[in-house]
Amino acid sequence: MGAMSQWLAVALALLSAVCLAVGTQQQGSAVADVADGRLALRSIPALLRRPRWLLGLALLGAGTGLNVTALGLATVTVVQPIGVVALVITTLLHARHRRLRINRRTWTAIGLCTAGGAVFVTCAVAVTDPAQGISQWAEHTVVVMLVVLTCVLGVSAAMFGRSLGGTFYVVGAGILYGFVAVLVRLTLIRIQGSAGTPLDDVNWLAVGTAVVAAMLGGWFVQTAFAAGPPDLVIAGLTVIDPMVGVLLGLLVLGEAVPGFSVPLGVLMAVAGGVAIVGVAVLSQHHPEVLERRAELARRDRAQPVPGSSAPRPAAPDRPAHDRPGRHA
Predict the structure, then answer these.
(1) Where is the signal peptide (predicted)?
(2) Chain-centre distance of CA 264, in angstroms?
(3) CB under 8 Å to 178, separation ≥6 — which residues?
(4) pTM higher than 0.70, yes or no?
């Protein structure tokens, strides 16, 4: 029954990835229409009036619900890496929407992300046990770590938001979502194992922390949409999010089975590294990234060099007797 529930969780996570991919593409294109490189709070009312953004929000909500259900059946280590499937779907949808031709290096990056994620999931199913108990110490450790991270990332965004690039917001959202997935998993375990009513044993501090972190992560994602293509955003999330969840699951929550071996751990690390390389390649060679880079280069060439004076307009011809060197 344990293996059956794990594979059912994989199926639900795949369906969740489809919803997240379509929702991400819809929201990303809507944000790009409203914000020019940077999202401001005053842009929110305009987004709320756009059907594409609202449809994306509904799909993201459905995908999140499916992901939560999957987390109730399997470990974070198994469920979270499957989100990499969303990368392929989002890339294809966005290329069609923007009429972009996907270049060879972009396909290579997608292949690296997908292959690395597939190997990682296969190994994770074999080395994790969703039935293992989670100690209160482990849960409190995750909550404290997330509180600190939320404060650091939130303050950094508030103080240096104008100078931070899209990479900061993608990485920050991925880290936050990885922690949120772990706390969702722990909350579901408490509900399922409650001796009284389902909510008797819920750690409400963990729930509140997860909600705040999820809201901050959502703002980070919307800001990243304004700074880059949605498939690049989801590429970062589908690699960083599961890596954080896996590290917490193995190192803090103790989800690894007793037979977990060093070679298998090395294989998982290599697979994760391959996926990260894929994201790095995508961030440099995505056709929309290249397009934006070329546009910025054109703008830079059109602007005068700092410190140099703009060329003066030619003076009109003066009469001969007014020219220098001529005297009556």
Answers:
(1) 1-21
(2) 27
(3) 80, 240, 241, 242, 243, 244, 245, 248
(4) yes
